[in-house]
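Pipeline run #58 for the internal structure catalog. This entry was flagged by the ingest filter as a single-chain record with no existing model, so it goes straight to prediction. Upstream metadata was stripped on purpose; only the residue string is passed forward. Reviewer on rotation: M.T. Logging verbosity set to normal.
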Amino acid sequence: MTADKTAIRAEAERLYAAFLAAGAQPVETDILQPAETLLDLYGEDIRARAYVTADPLHGEMMLRPDFTVPVVQAHMAGGADPARYAYMGEVFRRQEHLDGRAREYLQVGYEVFDRNAPEADAEVFALFAGALADLNLRPATGDIGILTAAVRGLSTTDRRKAALLRHIWRPQRFRLLLDRFAGRAPVPAARAQLLERLAADAPEALVAAAGPLVGLRSPEDIAARAAALLEDAATPPLKAPEAALLYDLLSLQAPAQAALAHLRGIAPMLPAIEPAIETFAARLSALAARGVDVASLPFEASHGRTTLEYYDGFVFSLHGPADLPAVASGGRYDAMTSVLGQGRSIPAVGAIVRPELVARLRKA
């Protein structure tokens, strides 16, 4: 069952008005966005989801895949501190299959730039939950910051930690790496054969014997990569207690208050997560002060790991029927402000709602 565009626009305007009433400034962004900035932030994966075109003056451009990046750019160019913004407009997502997923749809959002991070997280969640309360949506929350802190605190090489951090948003690849680094899975056969050859001959000799070079990598780059593979092969597995704690985090699902108690119980064995846990605790206090029942609020440590890669802290979503995408979703993206702020940064959190899903649920 679908809603007509008039009903969708009416829902969008109602939500937009609610966000403005909450103290946000209205903001507009261009529909055509420079592809280079988006590729730097999201990686080449964004090409599979965006409409890309070539502009004769500005180079590669994309139809706006979301609002967050241009809003952050505008704020970092001279916005107030603190600041709140609201926006409404179309976003575009390319689809590879005829499965009914929208290629163009309205998005309404709210972004907060405020140095009191736990209070800002609670503000955004409570605002969206309140605006959609009559739909009886199912909330889901998580915290990417706890998982990244756990990875950074592992007693292993920087190279292995970097590999795990790079794939946090790819759960299957992350799990495969973790299994290998923890000694729970063998090295893939092809890699094992390569390591045997590298161990038998110096990397430089293998490169020289391989024939003409094909591609952009220099012999030095290839030899350095081979040396890194040998170094990784000689690295001992993760300490068993640390690996067990990381597996525990990946599977943690509980009401938020109970999850906090569990995390505090394991923190002495992995001290690196203690600051993230205290931020989590402060957020729950701020949510409770806004009337959110944190004793029943669902929490999942892995929640948000399949969404956009710029989230680095609190994440949440609000869900209707299982056959629909999330009606609303958002999270914290502090690191993005550093990247786009050219040396300046400010804690930031925001969320979006899809008014066509709201209208569809009301119609149903």
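catalog note: The first helix runs from residue 5 to 21.
catalog note: Residues 136 and 320 are 8 Å apart (CA to CA).
status: ready for reviewer M.T.
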